[in-house]
Write a structure and sequence with these properties.
Chain lengths: 72, 358
Amino acid sequence: MCLGVPGRIIEIEKTMAKVDVAGFLREISLDLCPDVSVGEYVLIHTGFAIQKVDEEDAKETLELLKKMVQAI
Amino acid sequence: MKFVDEFRIQEIAKGLIERIKKASTKPVQLMEVCGTHTVSIFRYGIRGLLPEQIRLISGPGCPVCVTPNSDIDLAIALCRQKDVILTTFGDMMKVPGSTSSLQKEKAEGKDIRIIYSSLEVLRIAKENPEKKVVFFAIGFETTSPTIAVAILRTKEMGIPNLFFLNSQKRIPPALYALLQLRQVKINGLILPGHVSTILGKAPYQFISKEFSIPAVITGFEPLDILQGIWMLVRQIEENRSEIEIQYKRIVKEEGNLVAQAKIDEVFEKADGHWRGIGRIPESGYRFKEAFQTMDARAFDVEVEPSKEHPECLCGEVLQGIKIPLECRLFKKVCHPENPIGPCMVSIEGTCHTFFKYQ
């Protein structure tokens, strides 16, 4: 039930946005995540963006993991 | 970056498992609270990759599974009214009530519609002004703000024929109840990433402060889960009990404040009834006064007395006390085609996941 998928914002119109989710175009609500721009990624749950995906944090986590693994 | 495949790289996973093996010196039991985690853990075979002394147990985090029979019976009673269209998320259709299910009722001709997003109920209500549209609203904090938005929109648009059968649940009070019972030894908690996207860290502080148990808010890809487990093992080995965030690309310390405000605008905390566990203080929501006219519980319908299969162990499975293999019904009588309890219905139910992957 608590599934969420990342999608990239293609177009914003008032409180709705068109997003690209793994190549599929979907329309979602931005009511819960209003502060976003075209090109950014959001996490989508039951047709709503519920949070912006933080690209910097994602990169940082992956870098940390790579370093951890290399250090073994 | 697509934020999916990058977190499935096998080489890093192998390295993380090595790290976990090196760091772990004693037997521990970790609970994954969320059903979406349970599915990921089984899908990627994570249980089998961990050292034997790290045991993962599944918790109560499946909203379909914890919906009490009495609410399903009420939804069934409502859909039997001639002027009602019942709407709900797909997962609820097969869940058996005391003597029927929404799927059986639909097959018999009742107007029941599966929706993907809570906003769809607004359209259904507008297109059917002569009917009462009832949304059987289940979910944890991930879903609650989306339901709150639908309720706020209903009021703004003045839609008179849309009602909500609210059966939502709150995760932190359920965890409190579970830890207080002390029926299962829990050395660490893998906290749900998407519930925490809304809530942030603050509502979980009691886990470390009152119970001295470490907890990590964790994402759902294999590398997320392995890193979450590694962070827990490290806390345990270092005798720390903190609430940490592994899933930093999504979860912020304070959570989603806009979503929290929507929930607060519509709902106030109330006791919740959890299947197999019972009443848990403040683990649910009720409507604030301004929205009570939309409460489908006020409908005057006759609901059958609620009863559950006496041998179904869903209640114990939801609390991590028993595993599905200990249930006499599992696989023999109870399977996805003929589910006896909700844990076999929901694709995130522990019994369903065991059936599919074990």
